[in-house]
Amino acid sequence: MSRYPFSKAKPGLATLGGILLFLLATSSSFLFASDARADFRVCNGTQTLVGVAIGYRAKDGWMTEGWWQVPANTCATLIEGELQSRYYYLYAEDAARGGRWTGDVNMCVAENEFKITGVQDCFARGFQRMGFKEYDTGRQGSWMVQLSDPSGTQESQN
Questions:
Q1: What residues contact residue 109 under an 8 Å CB cut-off, 6+ apart?
Q2: What's residue 4's pLDDT?
Q3: Is the omega angle on the peptide bond into residue 62 within 30 degrees of 0, that is, cis?
Q4: Which of 44, 74, 82, 143 is most buried by its number of CB atoms within 10 A?
Q5: pLDDT band at residue 150 under the 50/70/90 scheme
Q6: Which tens digits make up the pLDDT trace of 54-83?
Q7: Cα 11 from Cα 145, distance rounded (Å)
Q8: Chain centroid offset of residue 31 CA
Q9: Residue 90: phi, psi to the nearest 5?
């Protein structure tokens, strides 16, 4: 018996086997690459339901969207896919206790589900104005914000 078990294989089969092995190896990397998603996610580390709104710069100007209902100890994807902006803005409210996660950047929100273009004249346009916290993603493709107790503590990580 030979020390090299494949040495007696026909040349065409060895080449075909190598090609198949190469294709299997490269295709599996594509299959597993789809598991790594690029999104903007918010995780609710509190014991109560949290309502979340997001603001960002789009082609049409500043946009705010809400409300995502994020149950206790779960996460929600606010923006699916690769992030297009460097800065994103977040506002959240604790539905049960009235706590808020806020910041210094004023943007428009509505009482019910909304998608609002522009951040000026919120009251004149029939909206409310809230302070959003700025997150500098550094142009990373994905970002995650962790909302946690005690009231108003925010941590971000990517």
A1: 53, 64, 66, 91, 116, 122, 127, 128, 129, 130
A2: 34
A3: no
A4: 44
A5: low
A6: 999 988 899 999 999 999 999 999 988 888
A7: 56
A8: 21
A9: -130, 140
